[in-house]
Protein 1
Amino acid sequence: MAKNLFSAVTIFLSIGILTFFLVTEDGMKSLERAVSELQPVWLLWILAGVLAGWFLEGYVLHLFCRHLDQTWTFGKSFYIGMVELFYSALAPFGMGEPMEVYRMTKLGMETGAATSIVAVKSLVHHGVTFVYSFLLIAFELNYFRTKVSNFAVIAVFGLVTNSIFIVFVLTFMMNERLTDSILRVVVRFMDKIKLHKLSQKFYDQVHGQLMVFHDSSRIFGKNYMLYLVAVLFTVVQITVASLISYFVYRSFNLKGESVFIMVAADTFVTMAASFIPLPGSSGGAEGGFYLFFREFFGPYIIPGITLWRFSTYYLNILLGSILVYFGAKRYSSD
C-alpha cells in the first residue's frame, strides 16, 4: 500500500511540474495550436527512437551479463533494463539500479555479480555521457555561452556531480580495503546497539558478496574489448535518445536548426539533470530543456517540453509498467 502511494505521489509530482509549464506563458493555447499542426511521420520517428533506446539499454546490459553468465538470455537483460528505466522514473535517488540488482538476483544471479554488472554498466553510461556531452558542447561552445542563460553554472554543476559519481564508483570497485572498512563500521554500529548475533551474520553474508563483487569487477577490468564494445553501443544509445528532441522539433513542422546542436543540447541537459534527486530528474529536465531549446522552438517551447517529456519519461512509466509486469511473469517461472 505504501509503495503504491509513493509511486502515485511521484507521478503526480511530475505531472504537477509539467502542468506548471503549461499554465505559464500561455502554454495551454500554444499546446492546442501545436497539436493541430503535429506531423504524424515525425511522431513515428519519436516512437522508433524510444523503442531503439530501450533495446540498446537491454543490449549494453546484456554484454556484461553474458560475460559473467553464458546462460543469461537477452530477454532477461531487456526485462532488467526496463526495470531500471521504470523505477528510475518512479523513485528518487537512482532507485532504478538497486531494483536492477534485486530483480537480477531473483533470476538467479549472485548478488555480488549483479551489483558488479550494474556498477560497471552505470560507470560506462555516466562516463560516456559525461565525456560525450562536453565534447559535443565544446564544438558549439560560443553558441551555448551566448544563447543559454546561466550556462556556466549548469556546466559546473554537471561537471562536479558526474565527476564525484565516477570517482566514487571507481573507488568502490577497485579498493577492497575501503569497502571492507565501511562494512566493519556498520558491524561495529550493530554491536553497539546490541545486535551481536545479527552483526556477525550480516558481516559474513555481505563480505562474501563483496568478494564476488570485486572478483567480478576484476574480470571486467581485464577485458578491454568488452569495454570498447559497450562504450560504442552506449554512444549510439545516447545519440538515439538525444535525437528524440530533434524529432519533437520536426513534429511541429519546424525546420532549419542544426541537428548537431540539438543532439549536443539534449545530451548536455540529460547529463546535467541526471543527479537531480527527484523521480525522472523532474524539474531539472524540464527546466534544462526550456533553457537550451527555447531558441529553437520559439512559441512552441511549452508544447515541445510536453511532447519531449511524454516521450522520454511518461512512456517509461506507461509502457514500462506493462513490460516489467509481463517480464516478471515470464521469468519468475524459469
Note: The chain has 14 helices and no strands.
Protein 2
Amino acid sequence: MRVLGIDPGLTRCGVGIVDVRRDRTATLVHVGVVRSPVDASVAERLAIIAAGIRVVLEEHRPEVVAVERVFAQQNRSTVMGTAQAAGVALLLAAEAGLPTATHTPSEVKAAITGYGSADKLQVQTMVARVLRLEELPRPADAADALALALCHAWRGAPAEAAADAALTPAQRAWAEAEKRTRNRGALAR
C-alpha cells in the first residue's frame, strides 16, 4: 500500500510517502516539506501548500492519504493555520478520489514508538529505523509526515473500510473508475 502522510502547517507542511507491504515492512518513496513565506497572505500560503501537495499526488500516486488530526492548542492562530492546511490536504485527496484518514499526534507516536507522548527525536529515530534510513529525516515536519503514513498503514485498514462502506454505489463506482484511470496513467509512464 502506498500512503501519503501529511503533517499540516502554514509555514511548513510535511509530506511523506511510504510503500508498506503486508508484513509491515516499509520503504521510503518521497519525503519533503512544502514551505510558504510568513509574510504572504493566508490565501497565498494555502495556494502554495495546495500546489506542493498536488505535485506530490501527481508524481507519486498514493493509494490513501493520512493527515494529522488538528487538536486544540493555546495559540489560536497556529491552530487555525494548521486546520486550514489540513482542510486543503483533505480536499485535494477527495478531488483525486483517494480515501483519507486522520490520526492524532498521540496515535501516531504510539504506533511508531510505542509511547503516545514520545518527543520529536524519538519519532525521527524510529522512522529512520523502520525505513532503514542512514540519517534522521529532517525537519521534524517531514519525519512526522512519514510517521503519519506508517501509522496509517499499520493501523488504518479499519478506517479505510469504514470510509468505503460509507460511499454510495455511485460514489464507489466513480472512485473505482478514477483509480483505473490513475493506474493506466502510471502504466503509460
Note: The chain has one domain: 2-188.
